[in-house]
Amino acid sequence: MTILPENRQELILRACRCEAVDRVPVWIMRQAGRYLPEYQAVRKHHSFLEICKTPALAAEVSIQPLRAIDVDAVIVFSDILIVAEAMGMHLEVPDSGPILEHPVRDRAGLNRLRDFDPESDTRFVGDAIREIVREVGPTIPVIGFAAAPWTLACYMIEGQTRGKIGTAIEMARTQPDLMRDLLEKIARSTAAYLRSQIAAGAAVVQLFDTWAGELTGEEFVALELPAIQFLLSELNAAPTPVIYFARGASHLVESAGRTGANVISVDWRTDLAAARRVLGPRIALQGNVDPAILLESPEAAAESARHAVQATGGAGHILNLGHGILPTTPVENARAFVAAGKAMRASAVTARSRPFDAAV
What are the residue numbers of the active site? Predict the structure, then answer.
């Protein structure tokens, strides 16, 4: 008897749609990166931006985690600031962290930002996705991504990705009209950017909202929520699922559920079972293991995976970390996390998911 390879793309799509699965799919945010010796070997010869902008290199480092730790999805290797650069901000990525020249601080700065054509200005991202799809085949899902409007606006306003976002918070509170216009402009460009990734073969796309948790509930509803809703309406991604990840945002779970995203990704400070109760049965969850646990041991990493899956019963759940994997994470710990999650099969997942499925 011929045993066919597991269709991991169908697995992750079913999880995104809150349909019954034999097991949870699992991948890791920042899974292509510094913790992998294979990635470090590539970085010895190429700069970060060179890898991002060279499709063959981006595809290679994107696929490395599939080979090394057997994740269920490949996320394209890129950077959330690619959109800011395409909109006209000069980007440098020294070892100390990315820098955007001429931060947006006023209406004139906003007016300097331009619309761009993803099929020409950022075609290297789509080409990397196309190369990944050719390499891994139709049964492995490729994930595209971009920054959520608020997070990209924070970086555009601050001019860097490290440190605090006090200037952005001040602008949101003292110049809300300017902030809304900036968020709308970013949302429109990001929608076009993600459409190009879907056209290239991305099976799922994710919005990273690193700084969402710095907003109060009222500020999120007034500023970020309309921007994301506008972005998703412009994206018109169906049937491609959209994942929305908000860091430090346990106070925003209900509002995040109103974005229109198919999956809400939460960090380790948000209880998965509580998030399920808030979001109900029609919105899937992703997360939420503390990345620091993977520094400890393979056994601790495996137990953290099992605990996360048990919190949801595996229904409508994509197992992941609550933020990006830390650079000093031992590869064997990451591998143990993935393997433990994948081992949570029908008895622990599908059986528990039946009442959930009946409600969908």
Answer: 30, 34, 43, 79, 155
